[in-house]
Amino acid sequence: MSLKRALLAGLLLVSAPVAAQVVDSLLKPDPKDWLTYSGQYHAQRHSPLGQITAANVARLQAKWVYHMTGQKDLEATPIVANGVMYISQYNRIDAIDARSGNIIWQYQRQPVATGAQRGTGFWNNKLYVTANDKHLLALDARNGSVLWDVAVHDGLQLAGQAPLIAHGKLIVSGNQPHGYIQGYDADTGKYLWTWSPIPAADDPQLASWGGQKPDGMPIWVSGSYDPELNLIYYGTGQPEPQWAGEGRKGDNLYSDSIVALDPGTGKLKWWYQNTPHDTHDYDSLEMPVLVDAPWKGKPRKLLLQANRNGFYYILDRTNGEFLQATQFVRRVDWLKGWDDKGRPIPDPAHDPSVKGTTTCPSTAGATNWPSPTYDPKLHLFYFVAQEGCGINIRDTARNYAGTGYLESPDEGKSWQLFTRALDAFTGKKVWDYEQVTSHHYGPGLMSTAGGVVFSPEEFGQFTALDSKTGKVLWHFNTGDVITAAPVSYSVDGKQYVAIISSSNVFAFGLPGGAK
Amino acid sequence: MRRLVLIAAFAAAASAAQAQTANPYTNNAAAIEEGRGLYNNTCTGCHGANGAAGEIGPGLAIPGRSYGRNSDAQIFDAIQHGIPATVMPAHQSKLSDDQIWKITAYVKGLRGTAIDAPSPGNVANGEAIFWGKGDCGSCHMLGGKGSIIGPDLSNLASLRKTNSIIDALTKDKHRVYGPGGAQPHALVPLPTWPVVRITMADGKTVRGVLRNEDSFSLQMIGLDQQLHLFERARLKAVVYEPGSLMPTDYDKRLSKGEFDDLLAFLTRQGNPPQADKPQVRMPGGRDPD
Known about the structure:
The structure holds two protein chains of two kinds.
Chain A: H1 3-10, H2 19-27, E1 46-47, E2 61-67, E3 79-81, E4 84-89, E5 92-97, E6 103-108, E7 113-114, E8 122-123, E9 126-130, E10 135-140, E11 146-151, E12 164-166, E13 169-174, E14 180-185, E15 191-195, E16 224-226, E17 231-235, E18 257-261, E19 268-273, E20 289-295, E21 298-306, E22 311-316, E23 321-327, E24 335-338, E25 344-346, E26 357-359, E27 373-375, E28 380-387, E29 390-394, E30 403-407, E31 416-423, E32 429-434, E33 446-448, E34 452-456, E35 461-466, E36 472-477, E37 487-491, E38 494-501, E39 504-509
Chain B: H1 2-17, H2 29-42, H3 44-47, H4 72-81, H5 97-111, H6 123-131, E1 141-142, E2 145-146, H7 156-159, H8 162-170, E3 195-200, E4 205-213, E5 217-222, E6 227-231, E7 235-241, H9 250-253, H10 256-266, E8 280-281
Antiparallel strand pairs in B: 1-2, 3-4, 3-7, 4-5, 5-6
């Protein structure tokens, strides 16, 4: 490594860059960085770094461990920018040297909080803190100083997913009192807009609730962004009451949908509903992955999503046109079929009941929020799939009945997680890796240009699989529960892979010093 | 009616029988000084001097420590009656109530920070001096403005005592009282801002303040306001400079009035005192089961 490069590597976070340059850096991120929850705007979670390969990953070794004091079961994806890693929790960010694991600064707003917080956002030398007291803050990424602190508009609670910064707008969302997405000026914190999946009074879709007041539709996972179309893509949650559909006759828009919004105004450009009239709490919050590829011989802007309801969807992301849905788990029985416009027809025979109704997939889902990944060279879509069915039980026959769900005890219907690779365009299964003992959700995935899919497992194994075959190439027991997703970055030309296991961040690299 | 009067009289008597809760010596400098003398005669054997931890008892005024007894009445009670099941004895036979209130006022004073009793002066003029003649903003950040070479001062008055702030502005070797023996078992950035000069392999130098280091690496903020992350093995030299970058002649470069105004501004920078908040667990963002 040249001295000049050493110097450049040392000179971090160039001061006061103009906004336009920084937007460019998010538009064309340096492969050495991991700047957003999903790595890049298209949410492919595919690291372009190729130093760690299928041929050498067996030699991967731990480089450092950083313990985030007072925490457990962290779900955050770290951000890495210019050799500094930022780890977040509600009210808190720790900045650490991504090469040594040494802490550089820590921001802690009172009180100390724990919970399912999934990351921070980085833009224009700023980091964004989701606070647990309905505040949103920006910190100086160099020293953790508070640059601004604003109350969340309308006093809403943030759900804690990583903010998305798109077109200079800071996008956050939440669940209470019902789902919402809000936009702020990422530079100043000025509030700009709120979009709610509850249809407005003049929206004809209000009729899709059969006269009942729309409710629910929480939005608790971050989204993706297409800068050319200038659209953000988010999933929405289930309608309320979640198990009882008889009072809300109709499709219940915009629940269980993928929505495309203008980040500047919050205006809804299009929507596609994955599960109309959901009575199984399927949501539609799995990350929408954006891919440009030929579709039936014509180049198209596609949106890929493996949905909790058991189908792998391909949409045209310019207008939401339904192109294809393929079943990716063995048993799916919540629908009777499809109409000619790509709308599934739910089967009321599988609605939850007081004595319990078996439904496939279960409410835990055929997949869930842990992030998928897409290899643009192999055209493979990797995600965590769960085979099996569940039993949905209502407490009473009343409309607003509470309930729960169970794993099906029936032969062949119990739960089993797989790391699964699909042909991204046909939706056909290419390979499976069975995650022994993991159940329920599993952590998120990351593919790399080195031909390795990093697949953490719920009970602490951090596993490297061959992208082409799913064969295990390496594994490391982190010693605690993993509910986060891995990232990859590079410092001084040396590639690292990092994962958070409960309260510890582990960084791995190949043997030897910097290249 | 008579019955009602009787009830009222009974209530008044019950109230008078309850312990006095307000300290008569709050902010009474002479009484606090007297309390210091009493404290040094009575308490330091176990608790150590100046509120730092002693041989037997815990520190009574340690930044960052959370206290079991916070109010004047609680501290008074601990001194008067002792703390059951501990070695803390009762003092009611040795000290009068009056003396115990004076010690209580002294301990409370030790615990307080500048914001509890902000310094008098023209705050607006102090702010102008901070950003202008004092040039504090060329090293420090405050309220999201300024520079990153020194510590962020947005919460200064909640963390430091007025005397400590005056010392930092005027004394070469001012000392910041740290947590002493109560160092939490946590990896935190350095509480101090040592000056280092790095010489890289090509002879180029970077000077700045250290934020962290270990046997193999250094993390620093350079005078260029950038973060620098180094591997020791690649460096030609690392020089730890004595002293601080902080100028300590503000009593000379500012007039007495300007200095007082700056102090008035600084002793108001922070969050007002509040009770310890418990840790909270946020409801799951994860799908509710």
